[in-house]
């Protein structure tokens, strides 16, 4: 498991321990942070975040706008090294963002193989595109894709790296409602087949509850709350257990639903 932090790095115990002292690999963790802190100038955005994500676990991260969700994801992705505390990430990490970030002058297949170290990148990319249902669009230019197709290419690009940790930064928020349902199903299906640890940043409490095993709320620079969603998938929004969790999470986010319907 690689340790990434810039200053004042502390490391979790080396692999090989037991019980509470066990190293991350021994406990199936793909990411662990302890006391992760990130400042922008004098402003502390992350203030001692302790987070564990296990292989095969789907975690959603909620929080008010500006609470630091994307910042945390960027630090985990290694895109922002200027944080302090301890960070251990095991294996390969892949990220998909709200906007698909495809290279417009490269065809779909070449976008998926971009930077890929694989003996046969085209073959691996072809398989990933088949998994997201886009075999027929492999030679298309990004600008000719619909929003949903572009986001599926972005997922294929993440998937082809066979990630141990998949970081999703609001990848569904720009999609229309129907496409979003389709892409939700696709992501659950891909997750079920490949079993990476997933961290999904979202504003959408419903989305978090439909997809995740565990829903976290980031507030005041820390994980202020977490709910386990112990319900089988596919889940229905109107399941009484989800309705109760939904209200509890909205309350944690400072939203009252009284007087609305
Ligand atoms: N590069 C930067 N320089 C200065 N401040 C930044 C930078 N990036 C983020 N911030 C600040 O850090 C805070 C957290 O930003 P972040 O994007 O992580 O929040 P978020 O919870 O993802 O927000 P949203 O839900 O609105 O996307 C915000 O106040 C933001 O203005």
UniProtKB/TrEMBL annotation:
InterPro entries: AAA+_ATPase (IPR003593), ABC_transporter-like_ATP-bd (IPR003439), ABC_transporter-like_CS (IPR017871), ABC_transporter_ATP-bind (IPR050166), P-loop_NTPase (IPR027417). SUPFAM superfamilies: P-loop containing nucleoside triphosphate hydrolases. GO terms for molecular function: ATP binding; ATP hydrolysis activity. PROSITE patterns: ABC_TRANSPORTER_1 (PS00211), ABC_TRANSPORTER_2 (PS50893). Keywords: ATP-binding, Cell membrane, Membrane, Nucleotide-binding, Translocase, Transport. Residues 1-10 have a biased composition (Basic residues). Signal peptide: none annotated. Pfam families: ABC_tran. Residues 1-27 are annotated as: Disordered. The keyword Plastid does not apply. Residues 31-245 form the ABC transporter domain. Gene3D superfamilies: P-loop containing nucleotide triphosphate hydrolases (3.40.50.300). The keyword Signal does not apply. SMART domains: AAA. This is Sulfonate transport system ATP-binding protein. It comes from Actinomadura hallensis. The lineage of its organism: Bacteria, Bacillati, Actinomycetota, Actinomycetes, Streptosporangiales.
């Amino acid at each position: 498991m690689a340790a990434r932090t810039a200053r004042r790095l502390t490391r979790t115990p080396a692999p090989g321990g037991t019980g509470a002292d066990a190293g991350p690999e021994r406990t199936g963790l793909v990411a662990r942070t302890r006391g992760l802190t990130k400042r922008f100038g004098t402003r502390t955005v992350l203030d001692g975040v302790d987070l564990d994500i296990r292989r095969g676990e789907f975690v959603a991260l909620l929080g008010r706008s500006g609470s630091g969700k994307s910042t945390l994801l960027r630090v985990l992705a290694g895109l922002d090294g200027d944080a302090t505390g301890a960070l251990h990430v095991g294996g390969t990490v892949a990220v998909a963002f709200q906007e698909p970030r495809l290279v417009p002058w490269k065809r779909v297949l070449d976008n998926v193989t971009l930077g890929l170290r694989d003996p046969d990148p085209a073959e691996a990319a072809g398989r990933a595109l088949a998994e997201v249902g886009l075999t027929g669009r492999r030679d298309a230019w990004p600008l000719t894709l619909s929003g949903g197709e572009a986001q599926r290419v972005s997922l294929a690009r993440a998937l082809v790296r066979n990630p141990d940790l998949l970081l999703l930064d609001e990848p569904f928020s720009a999609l229309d409602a129907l496409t979003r349902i389709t892409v939700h199903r696709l992501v659950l299906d891909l997750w079920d087949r490949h079993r990476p640890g997933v961290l999904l940043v979202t504003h959408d409490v419903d989305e978090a509850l439909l997809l995740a095993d565990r829903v976290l709320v980031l507030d005041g620079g820390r994980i202020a709350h977490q709910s386990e969603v112990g319900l089988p998938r596919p889940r229905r929004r109107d399941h009484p257990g989800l309705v109760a969790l939904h209200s509890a999470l909205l309350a944690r986010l400072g939203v009252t639903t009284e007087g609305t319907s």
